[in-house]
Specification:
single chain; globular; alpha/beta; 8 helices; 6-stranded mixed sheet; Lambda Exonuclease, Chain A
């Protein structure tokens, strides 16, 4: 039996809270991030040369000020606040990123990946030098390494890249452009195996099974909180 491909973004939602996968399958979640997330991701991908990073970022910021409202349905006050915040960070961003540019360019942006055999698909933020999967984050990293969610999403992208190019992808990285930082991490076989197990659970959820809400879920900041608080009769012991 053939199943629709599970997107790596679904894996990410599952790791935040399995119920988010359920509500997303109903079309109840926003289709893109906050204004700050959209802006910083666009700025990170605007750097095409290793020289004059500050100039490139300033030019991109002015362009995005006009373009982003035409592409995304962003609230004007949120976008203006994000633009102002980014403007104040450009100098420190450029200073921080200069030592990481060999790991960022040349690159392919927004790389669509698909594997019928793995039952996975995804859109990778950046395919960095050395066939390195790279994802962009606007939050802060942990004290060491990267967050578990990002580690597993990188494992998912490495599976897709490995099959497409017939290579073994040993490393991935997470970019924190507002901090001028890149964290490079090894891709573990155990993480790849866990991604495939989560894929199977995501399929069940998308098939209509509402999972239990796990302890520690970020309920207070969740877009689905109202829906999630409603009484549901179906639940699976798998979750």
């Amino acid at each position: 039996m053939m199943y629709p491909a599970v997107r790596i973004s679904d894996i990410g939602l599952y790791l935040l809270c399995p119920r988010l996968v359920y509500f997303d399958s109903l079309g109840k979640l926003p289709r893109f991030g906050s204004a700050k997330q959209v802006l910083m991701r666009s700025l990170a991908l605007s750097l095409l040369q290793k020289d004059d990073l500050e100039g490139q970022l300033k030019e991109a910021l002015q362009r995005l000020r006009v373009e982003l409202p035409l592409v995304y349905d962003l609230k004007d006050d949120e976008l203006q606040a994000a633009l102002k915040e980014a403007d104040g960070e450009i100098v420190s961003m450029a200073r921080g990123l200069i030592c990481w540019m060999d790991q960022l360019i040349p690159f392919e942006a927004e790389v669509e990946l698909y594997s019928e055999k793995l039952g996975l698909s995804g859109r990778l933020d950046r395919l960095a030098p050395g066939d390195t999967p790279s994802i962009i984050r606007t939050g802060r990293p942990p004290e060491n390494g990267i967050w578990k969610r990002d580690r597993l999403m990188l494992a998912g992208y490495s599976l897709l890249l490995g099959e497409k190019e017939n290579i073994k992808v040993d490393w991935g990285q997470v970019e924190y452009p507002s901090l001028g930082m890149v964290r490079r991490v090894p891709v573990r076989s155990t993480d790849k195996a866990r991604v495939l197990r989560i894929r199977d659970r995501v399929r069940l959820i998308k098939g209509g099974q509402l999972p239990d809400r796990p302890e520690g879920s970020p309920c207070q900041s969740c877009h689905a909180q109202t829906m999630c608080d409603m009484k549901h009769s179906l639940a699976s012991k798998f979750f």
